[in-house]
Amino acid sequence: MAIKMHLKKRNQILSMVLFICCAITVSWGIFRSTPLPEIFYQSDKALHIMAFTAMAFVGRMSTPMLSPFLYWPTIAAIVVSMEYVQGVLQITRTSSLEDAVANLMGIGLAFVVVKIVDKKMSGSE
Question: Which residue range(s) make up the domain with 29?
Fold first, then answer.
């Protein structure tokens, strides 16, 4: 029992560190003065979806003590706010409704993945 508790605590610390790294990386991408170069048409939207999926998923895994009714609306509000603040802080960038929607799509995808992982984990116990 003590080993299992230790492993849970260690995994939670590792996931929190990973979440912080994700948040820093996503913030760097959002708040840098120039956008990343487009690889293909609308590739920035794909990057928004992937980045926010990863950040929201890892964030949820690192905060199991938070109620999902608190976590998901909070992370959604944060990602929409990040898109708005980007246009305010960077004179060379503008806020984009499409980017905000892509951010929310990433959150929605993370929500689905978390539900699938939770279902698999509860079935394996």
Answer: 2-124
